[in-house]
Amino acid sequence: MPHPILQETVTRFDPPKHHYALLYASGGELIAHQNGNFVLTDDADDSVIWDLSGDTLTHVLGNTEMRVSNDRVNVTIDNQKVAGRLAHGPELLPSEYLNHIREHGWCCMTSILDPDLLEAMEKVGCTDRYAKREMDRGQSMLLQSPAIAQTAAEPVSLWVTRRYLGLDDVCIGHPPGLAIVDKDDGKRPVLAWHSDYPYHWGVPARGKVPPGTGATCLGLQRNVCISPFTKEDGATAFKLGSHRLDQPPPEEWGTAMQHSRPGYREEHGLPYGGPDADIVEAPGGSIILYDSRTWHRTGVNQSGKRRSAMLQAMIPMYILPKNDTTRAWKQMAESDVYNELTDREKREFERLMVHRFIGPGGRFAITGDSDLGRDSELS
Ligand SMILES: [Fe+2]
């Protein structure tokens, strides 16, 4: 059967002309300005956002101004001098992204990743500027470069995720890695319409969430675009706003369950790709957050340029992770690349990867690792 022409409606985000700035202290903590005082924090709400004009740094919520010299400023926190390093920040305020996802069920944080970090992600995945590089398949990407954990610890998307899910205790449901979509060969099965973990609607999986979960959201998907996301290069297709329906995608669109059957594509063609579906086009380094109930499917790469992304199922801690992330965290914590993380990145990565619950005698990591499972507290 011939391929239908993919006719999704495109919502396009161009590279921003202006970015706000963040200020990092030596441990990677963010320097915020709250109630007239400088403070160190891991929470990237609007109080950590600065605007640079020439060599003047202005806080977005007040009239605080500072002179910047060589991308550095000095502030006083609790009577101590603290050096702040200026860094790439978001295009919009964290609260603007939060308002957007609360209203629409998704938001695009355009080009939010630091450009050097984006390049490191291209390098580890051997795509884009590093497309000719040979991939190291001998060990986990997490151990090859600190970039994977640094990207997972991106502070603004974490803050929005925590506020949207309604609690600070948010985890990643699986060890993070890269999802690379190669050119479509016209035959291979595609990951057709579904909702993400833990809902797993449309997916051939057991233990799905029953439809109709209402106001409590059980998962938020965080897709970091490493390659530019375009229709031709295989950007994810969505039905934006479908989280509100709180039910699985329709079978007539072609679900992941249907398309997982041998020979299904040959007989029925590609899943739905008409104008009622949406493509969010965004530059590399953008993060697309969406309510995990949102119907979506993998894009069909027609260009042949390998499309790289880091997809993370973000879950509240009361949801069981898809697999044991704690072992991957422990391997990473014992590796050389761990030492390249800042203290804040180490803290965030551990919070995301090690699932601890209160039990008799302390908090225990849920893991098959006997060392970690026994410990009441880790580092
Ligand atoms: Fe998905």
Radius of gyration: 21 Å
Major sheet characteristics: 6 strands, antiparallel
Give the count of helical stretches: 10
Second-tier CATH architecture of the largest domain: Sandwich
In short:
This protein has 379 residues and is an alpha+beta fold.
Task: Tell me what the structure shows.
The chain is an alpha+beta fold and 379 residues long. It folds into two domains: 9-14 and 93-316, Jelly Rolls (Sandwich), CATH 2.60.120.620; 21-88, no CATH class. 20% of the residues lie in helices and 24% in strands. The protein is built from ten helices and 20 strands. The strands form six sheets. Strands 10, 11, 12, 13, 16 and 18 form a six-stranded antiparallel β-sheet that branches. Strands 1-15-14-17 form a four-stranded mixed β-sheet, with no helix packed on it. A hairpin with a 2-residue loop joins strand 19 (356-359) and strand 20. Helix 1 crosses helix 5 (155-165) and helix 8 (325-333) runs antiparallel to helix 9. The chain is globular and about 70 Å long. Mean pLDDT is 93; it is low at 375-379. The protein binds fe (ii) ion.
Offer a few descriptive terms.
10 helices; 4-stranded mixed β-sheet; binds fe (ii) ion; Jelly Rolls; 379 residues; globular; 24% strand; 2 domains
